[in-house]
Amino acid sequence: MGITCTNLSRAHAHDADAQEVALGSLVDAELAFARMGSSRGVREAFLANFADDGVVFEPAPVRLRETWRARPAPADPLAVKLAWSPAQAGVARSFDLGYTTGPFTLTSAAHPGAIRHGVFFSVWKRERGKPWQVLLDLGIATPAPVDFVALGAAPRPQFTGRATPGVERRRLLALEGSPLAANARARTPNDYAQLLAAAARLHRNGSAPIAPRGEVALEMARRMSTVSWTPLDARVSNAADLAVTWGRYRQIDHAQQTQDGYYAHLWLRDVRGAWRLAYDIAVPESP
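Request: output the structure for the sequence above.
Response:
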C-alpha cells in the first residue's frame, strides 16, 4: 500500500484495518527515528534504529552497526544535523517489509548558512512481535526541496497469490544478475523500460525524483546506452509481493563513457505475479 504526505493523517480517520495499522506503525517508527536524530544526533539514532544486518550506502553498502561502532563518536553529536520526514510509505501484505521515502536537510554548525537538500529512501523489516528496524538506507542530493505530492501516489504491490519467498528471491537475483552472465548482454533502455512499474520512481544525485514509468524510461534512455547490475543481496517479504535488492551497477552512456556505482531497487509484484521495478535509486562510486 502506498501513501502520500497529504493522506498520512487521513489514514486514521476511519476504522483501521490490518494494512493501515501496519502502515501507520511504520510511519510512526520513521517519525520516532527522525526525532531521535534531532535530539540525540545522527550516530546514536542510526545505531538504535538499524537492524544488525542493516546496510547504509557510503556510497558502497556497509553494515552500519559494525562500521559505525568502529569509528570514534563525534565530540559534538549535534554539530551536524540531519532532519527528515516520511512523505510516502508502503508495506507488504505480510506486514514484515516496508519502505519510507521523503525529503531531508543537512546542516552543519561549521557552516550555519548552508542547507543541503536531498531525498532519503529506507527499507524496514519487522519480525513478529518486534519493532520495525531499518534494513537499508540510501539518499540522493537534490538542488531544492522536493514536492512529493506532484509525484503522484506511491507505487504499491498488487499480487495476492501464493507466496514462495525463497523461490522469488532466487528469481530476482537471476533477473538482475543475468545480463552479466556468459554470452549475455547488458540491458538497453528498451530492456530497462519493460521492467518498470506504472508508478516507477527514479532517484539520481543532482535532480528531483522522476515519475512515472514513461518519464523514467525517457530519462534513462537519455542517460545510458546500456546498464548492468551485479546484485549483492535481496530480501523478499513473506507475502512475496515486495522485495529489495542492492549491489553494483555499470552504466555506459551514448559517448561510451563508463560510470560505476551502487544501487538499491524496490520491486513490487503486479496482479499477474510479475516483478516490476518501482524504485531505482543509484549513486556513483565517485563524484
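Residues 21 and 254 are 47 Å apart (CA to CA).
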